[in-house]
Amino acid sequence: MLKRMSVLFCGAAFAVMTAGYATAQTATQEAKEKTKTAADKTKTTLTDAEITSAVKTKLLADSTVGGLKLDVDTEHGVVTLSGPVHSAAERAQAVKLAHETKGVKSVKNNLKLDTAGTTGRTDKDDKLKAEAKEDAAKAKEKTKDAGEKTKDVSKEAAQKTKDAAVKTKDVTADAAITSEVKTKLLGDTKVGGLKIDVDTKDNVVTLTGTVSSAAEKAEAIRLAKTTTGVKSVVDKLVVK
Predict the structure, then answer these.
(1) pLDDT digits (tens, 9 = 90+) for 113-145
(2) Are the beta carbons of 234 and 209 closer than 8 angstroms?
(3) What does each C-alpha distance from 110 to 51, 80, 173 come to in angstroms?
(4) Which secondary-structure segment (H or E) carries 34?
(5) How many other C-beta atoms are found inside a 10 Å radius of the C-beta of residue 127?
(6) Is the distance from CB of 216 to CB of 190 less than 8 angstroms?
(7) Do residues 105 and 76 lie in contact, with contact meaning Cβ atoms separated by under 8 Å?
(8) Considering the entire predicted model, what is its pTM?
(9) Which helix (H) or strand (E) holds 185?
(10) Which of 4, 39, 195, 235 has the smallest number of Cβ neighbours within 10 A?
């Protein structure tokens, strides 16, 4: 009788230990999955920002495409092109450049044919285009640096909180917004974009500098507010 009770007791103890071990394994696996998911989300966001910058740079550098007037947005590797073009050839070239950019899964063509526009170029247009290309290159470099920092954060995600990844994501988003707003200001003929500084923090854009009229000021603010990702705009523009 005592021998039988001993066997039963040992069996019960083994079952409890096995169940506890299985629970611990499950918890560990779930923690790994959460860490991997957080890292993947951060990586996706950075990749989208890099793709947007790369596509915009190609459009600005191409002589066939009026890159200053085209908007580029990327989500999960899908690029959306919007804005006016002067011909079907320009539209086809813009779509082709986007398709050929590394990391692009597909391209949504929201480009509209502007038959009333002209394709004449002036020295001012060339200067604005050069400035926009330089800004896009700087934004790309900032995005690259942010990407390297995010990789390091992802490696240590098991020991650090999710807030670190979120903070890195915000920095990248701010850099992309700054580049997009600056490009819009440079491409708009109503705004002296070269005299306006753009800063972004936590998706809030601050415009500083001088404008020649209230109409120019209103247009600059409108362009900033209608940029994807912008929560609000702080107006520090001075009319002179």
Answers:
(1) 886 555 455 555 666 777 777 877 887 787 777
(2) no
(3) 18, 7, 23
(4) helix 2-61
(5) 12
(6) yes
(7) yes
(8) 0.34
(9) helix 162-187
(10) 4
Q: What letters, b where the CB count within 10 A reaches 16 and e where it falls short, cover 67-86?
A: bbbbbbbbeeeebbbebbbb
Q: Which has more confidence, 128 or 200?
A: 200
Domain ranges for the chain: 44-120, 121-240
Supply 201's token pair.
């923090």
Spatial CB neighbours of 32, under 8 Å, sequence gap ≥ 6: 158
Assigned CATH for 44-120: 3.30.1340.30
Element (H, E) at 55: helix 2-61
Q: Alpha helix (H) ranges present in 62-117? A: 88-99
